Amino acid sequence: MKRKPRILILGAGYGGMMTASRLSKQLGYNDAEIILVNKHNYHYQTTWLHEPAAGTLHHDRTRMRIDSVIDTNKVKFIKDVVQEIKASDKKVILEGHGELEYDYLVIGLGSEPETFGIPGVEENAFSIRSVNSVRQIREHIEYMFASYNNSEIKHDDYLTFIVAGAGFTGIEFVGELTERIPELCKEYDIDRSKVKILSVEAAPTALPGFDPELVEYAMNLLESRGVEFKISTPIKEVTKDGVILATGEEIKSKTVVWTTGVRGSSILDKSGFETMRGRIKVEKDMRAPGHEDIFIIGDCALIINEEINRPYPPTAQIAIQQSYTVAKNVKALLTGSKELEEFTPDIKGTVASLGGGEAIGIVGTKKLYGSSAATMKKIIDNRYLFLLGGIPLVVKKGKLNLFS
Ligand SMILES: Cc1cc2nc3c(=O)[nH]c(=O)nc-3n(C[C@H](O)[C@H](O)[C@H](O)COP(=O)(O)OP(=O)(O)OC[C@H]3O[C@@H](n4cnc5c(N)ncnc54)[C@H](O)[C@@H]3O)c2cc1C
User: Fold this and answer.
1) Among all residues, which ones are annotated catalytic?
2) Which of 205, 313, 335, 338 has its CA 20 to 30 A from that of 47?
3) pLDDT band at 402 (very low <50, low <70, confident <90, very high)
4) Are 232 and 199 in contact (CB under 8 A)?
5) In 10 A of CB 6, how many CB atoms?
């Protein structure tokens, strides 16, 4: 008996989950076999990870079991780690399950921290990239507080927290730290003035590319909560004792969190795809160039903003929008159609949280500050949950109290 065409989706992030969800709604049981592979049995919301990293939200709030969200009658879930894609053989190599063949492949393996080859980052810095990594950051910060008072000699580097990169992730994490640090000071009997939060950025401004008025608002607010910005300050090396700046100055710290941007999953390079910063420059229909049966989604895909001739920054917003095009196009190929949809991002806005019920953002052409921006951020988070799992998922996992 001829087997059903197999659609293999790699990665259960925003792109992968939404593609699986869309396909399971659009295809009948006999149309195709849909398989979703992910290294964990849960899906997490990457955009929330700065909160559990600082300890202001439990990590369980950011994640949900994959089989509780997808229709398991239509999508088979395999918990495994993707090791390599063998496009010429139409196969994927998994760590535990061996080889898996596909007819159509959707790659949504997300991103990895961009180190720019700076020595010591991989070995000595933390990164906000998964539930496991943020759990480690939260535990480490708490351990630093616990260790400080337990030692005869007072090590200031235990209470110096360096966040490398003042882009969105760095600023959101710093904002959460300003909420969490006073709680830890109280819990561990440490004076707040002993703790330093440093935001170190190589570019001439925090939040490069963002509206200057909103950037000023964010920086003033965070400075008023004790954050020290070091702007136009490239880091030359990260050591086990802290960071060495391009000027040669050393800042001692036992906690360096690296948030200077991301590159696409290293699996793409390993599998022989042509990439730019680890991302595949996709065709307009979201396929990998030269591969009629492979779609790339989310942080693995590079798309150009033709107005400024630069790549769009990788965001969940774009990953979610791409899933609609990818699901439609996979279905079109299955039904023998050659007419594929072209993807055009529809950027609705950008909101960055600053902790403490504050945020900044642009929605449409409107600038938002303070609590109204924070409310908008929660609405955006809840909207995603609604798209993925309807009202029940919003009730179970959403940020329901919009005004606090
Ligand atoms: C702190 C933070 C805040 C952010 N805030 C925003 C925001 O406000 N708005 C916004 O639009 N974007 C935001 N982003 C960016 C956004 O999170 C990403 O662009 C988005 O997650 C990309 O979705 P994705 O599906 O490509 O990858 P991801 O959501 O990262 O998912 C990738 C999945 O692949 C799995 N995986 C990876 N490697 C393997 C492997 N080898 N085998 C099996 N499974 C694997 C991972 O476990 C994960 O489940 C933020 C990012 C961070 C870190």
Assistant:
1) 172
2) 205
3) confident
4) no
5) 17
Beta strands in 219-307 (DSSP E): 227-230, 235-239, 242-245, 250-252, 255-258, 262-264, 280-281, 294-296, 301-302, 304-305
What number is the average pLDDT over the span 359-373?
93
pLDDT at residue number 152 = 81
Atom of ligand 1 nearest to the CA of 317: 11
Query: How many whole angstroms separate alpha carbon 128 and alpha carbon 124?
Result: 14
Q: How far is the CA of 111 from the centre of ligand 1 (A)?
A: 6
Pocket-testing residue among 46, 100, 324, ligand 1, by greatest number of atoms within 8 A of Cβ: 46
- Residue with the smallest CA separation from ligand 1 atom 47 is 39
Is the predicted pLDDT of residue 100 greater than 80, yes or no?
Answer: yes
**Ligand 1 atom closest to 297 (CA):** 26
Three-class secondary structure of residue 19 per DSSP: helix
Q: What is the pLDDT of residues 156-182, one digit of tens each?
A: 999 999 999 999 999 999 999 999 999
Given a cut of 90, whether residue 399 has pLDDT beyond it is no
pLDDT at 206 over 90: yes
Q: Is the separation of the CB atoms in 139 and 58 below 8 Å?
A: no
Select from 238, 367, 280, 242 the least CA-distant residue to 85.
280
Residue 403, pLDDT score: 67
User: Which of left, alpha, beta for 355 (phi over 0: left; psi -120 to 50: alpha)?
Assistant: left
Q: What's this model's pTM, rounded to 2 decimal places?
A: 0.95
Ligand 1: does its nearest atom lie under 6 Å from the Cβ of 265? Answer: yes
Among 273, 321, 334, 339, which Cα is nearest to 300's? Answer: 273
